[in-house]
Amino acid sequence: MTKSPKQKVSELASMGIDIGKDVFHLVGFDGDGRIALRRKIKRLSLVDEFKKLSPCIVGMEACLSAHFVSRTLRGLGFDPRIMPAKYTKPFLKGQKNDYNDAEAIAEAALRPNIRCVREKTQDQLDLQALHRVRARLVSRRTATINQIRAFLIEQGITVRTGAHALRKSLFAILRNREDEISPRMSDIIVGLYEDWLWLDERIESTTTEIEMISKREANCSRLMSVPGIGPIISTAMVAAIGTGEAFDRGRDFGAWLGLVPRQFSTGGKTTLGRISKRGSRYLRTLFVQAAHIILMRPRNWEKFSFGPWLEQASQRMHKNKLAAALANKLARIAWSVLRHGKAFDTNRIEVAAV
Asked: Is the pTM of this model over 0.90?
């Protein structure tokens, strides 16, 4: 006897959602691995449609609103799994379209060895949004400063490197070179300078808000006990990975950041290259900057538990390679602090006190 569509829908084992801006495409498999559901729904009808279905595994790619959809479905009793898009691509069959994408996602969701993205809370998303706004403002400020420099160079005027030097000498240049710089160009440069000041105020207010959050959050306070890690890195790390339960060990976190060597291994021969640069570019950049700051102060190395390692490594490695290695070590230490809830070098401080 042939099963009706309603019976097939009620026996779903897994489902894939291709998330779109206005519509979602759904493909579901039954217990025998056959397609039992193939449907397109509106975003606004997501809750109503899933209330009609029995709970099952629901896969989706990590993208905009994936965490919102995941939390919504979890509240309805489903088992949502967010996966990186590159992990679902090998399951794609035929030409690329929304239904084929959803089918590939449904198949990938059933694989036990697929590493899923940890679902973010609303607080994590808010904190991540703050960092993204700050990064955009910093980028715009850099672009504004570079544009001022470019306009001055077109007038045959160069200013030494550094934002402080340009800010200090800009109006003196406009006064002393007013015979060479047209009034219109002078107004344009002054307008850009006003944009620069506004961006400074926005960056300062956003940074202040991030610093206030870092003081309230216990995890951020513990992370700031690690050398080189301040409010920006600690809050960015908490926003990205929460308490770090998505990783089994610090080495996995370093690999996610892209701070481990890229492998070209075959035939039993292991070949390591430059760092892989996978994962979060923003966090990786912050950890590398922290490493460079530590390397600028060698007199403080002996204060750290990894000081002897850093002394030996500095004698045999190029400074850029050393910075990448130190960034990886800092990332692994930071994960350990976050995961186990203990400040850095706690045991060493206790022994010294005794």
From this structure: no
